[in-house]
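User: My collaborator and I are trying to settle a disagreement about how two of our proteins should look. Neither of us wants to argue from intuition anymore, so we agreed to look at predicted structures for both before our next call. Could you fold the first one, then the second, and keep them clearly separated?

Assistant: That sounds like a sensible way to settle it. I'll keep them separate. The first protein:
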Amino acid sequence: MSTFDTVLSMVRQGEKVELRTMPSTDAGVLSTLLMHPEVKPHILLRHGDSSPHTYLEKLVTRMLYAFDPCALHAGIYVRGRHELIGTASLQNWNRYENKAVLGYMLNPLWWGQGLATEAVGLLLDYAFQELGVMKIEGRCRGDNLRSERVMIKNGLTLERILPMPGSSGDVMKVFTLLHK
């Protein structure tokens, strides 16, 4: 079985959540989550010349059907349930340098229960043990303390703070974790 086949059939279970490949029936839930007013400010959606709606459709398609060879997107589900509550992903995955950027989002109804922390831990373990990733970088806006805590609880450490382009004082915190 190739790495690509393994990725497509990914299922990882924790105590409270499981990560698994998202079915096409989750497209609406995924779109709603990406546009949620409490989630959207923390996600960098670069739509370029496309309309935001067209870009959102393309992004959802890439996430559901694994059309992006440099990314892996998994759905976060409460263990034993079928409702998509978030996503965890490896983005900008460089297989030659064995590094990737961590991404995750969770429906605000589920915040504060340790679910994102557990899901990210499952993804990190999968990335290091199954995919051979050696370095993970995570990023969050300076005021996103929830996301910062998720990364710190999973062993990532603050590497640098960068100014956000075009913002008035907003920063991006960059965290890293190396596989031992």
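The second protein, kept apart from the first:
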Amino acid sequence: MEAYGDGGLGLLGDPSRRAIFELLARRPCSVQELADELPISRPAVSQHLRVLREGGLVVSRAEGTRRIYHLNPEGVTAMRAWLDGVWSDALTTFHKIAEDPRT
């Protein structure tokens, strides 16, 4: 996921992928269950899941003849760590600027 340079956030730039991510944050789902909740086709859901899976944010398991998708804890942890780092850098910069007597 670090290959994207943004901790995976770029993967969530698409509104449909973000909606899929949010649904999977609530509970594991099949492609059909996700398609039933979204205004996009089942093939489109599958394509978005492939991108999320390749990006490390989603994993799946076989359950009978279907695949059940859920968030990848390692991928989500990496994304949170990246975001925490960005936030920490922003706060450090803010404090430096706020405490600079020249401003």
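Some points you might bring to the call about the second protein. Residues 22 and 71 are 9 Å apart (CA to CA). The chain has a mean pLDDT of 89.
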